[in-house]
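Run CoA transferase through structure prediction, thanks.
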Amino acid sequence: MAEPIKGPLDGLRVIDLTRVLSGPFCTMILGDLGADVIKVEPPKGDPVRAQGTMTEGHSGYFAGFNRNKRSVVLDLYSDEGKAVLRRLLADADVLVENFRPGTLDKLGLGAAALKELNPRLIVASINGYGSTGPYVDRPAFDFIAQAMSGFMGVNGEADGPPMRAAAPVSDLVAGIYAALGILASVIGRDKTGQGQTVEVAMVNGLLSLMAYLSSEYFATDKVPARTGNDHPLVYPYGLFTCSDGQIAVANSHDQILTRFLETLDLGWIMTDPRYDTNPKRMAAREELRDLINGRMAGKSQAHWLGILNAAGVPCGVVQDLAQVFSDPQINAQEMVLKAPWQDGPSQSVLGFPVKLGATPCTIHRPVPQLGGGTHDVLSEFGFSRSEIDDLVARNIAGLG
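Sure, done. The structure for CoA transferase is below.
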């Protein structure tokens, strides 16, 4: 029988002190890539264990971000719990935390202490605003980061209020950036033998995605207006109305736009002096919208999707999640998987967006029950059975 394929991060030990979303997303990425992720939880567990819809007592929200991990329960408010954590960190490669800045110092695990304990340790911190500046001590969640980064300010209809993204984008972006920083630091450590700190702020991460919106502001000193589903820089680009609904069309440059308009028998627009440049088309949005909708309204979504995609025009329908998860393309890409719980049934979770050819991501560990890995993990780090039993008996460590 063939040996299971090991991920590219096999052998990398990650101590995960994170909870809720940004940090667990980061460590899940590392775990999916093969790292040994040890999730250190307080006696009551990560708060997300009790959030969202429960299936047979298990949170789908928690399962969605905590596969490929082992759970260890430690009371870090006790001196003994902190001592156990130090033993783990002394033999680990990476520490990931998403406390407010200064929390590690209060645990006696500030930068200097960690460097002395393990010079090779990579310490990754995810927080709201960073560890410098006047907002260091402010709490932050995704909604606040969306507001403070300018992200909400550019989303919404032109005559409507700012709008948040439904998905927790600042948490997710921060988690991805933290994983990227950790991987870069692992490569750097191979060259220097030394670990380093990695810091990602949710506000910074989301701000970094402002793309051409920030470029336009730098160039003009003008705050970008909200444009709803229209593109802020080019037109026609957005949602257009067919006989049975809307389709999204992305005419990102003149070559694609020409194909689009010619398919609609509106190719004359590109040479009409009223519309022959993008600035003119931007100024005439509503006129062009009426022309395009008037032409498309006579045929179905399926009709236009077929001929526009065949013409090389990027387009698609706005799908709800039921449609997405029954879409044959999504299924072909295996973007829905089953993750087993350590002590229960399997639950559907999102699949792996990164497809590696030789060492693919796999679900190689179940979603852990609270404390379900405490005994095995502490044994691997050199704790004796009697030491573990004593820690459990005194509620310093816990078993699920």
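The longest strand covers residues 36-41.
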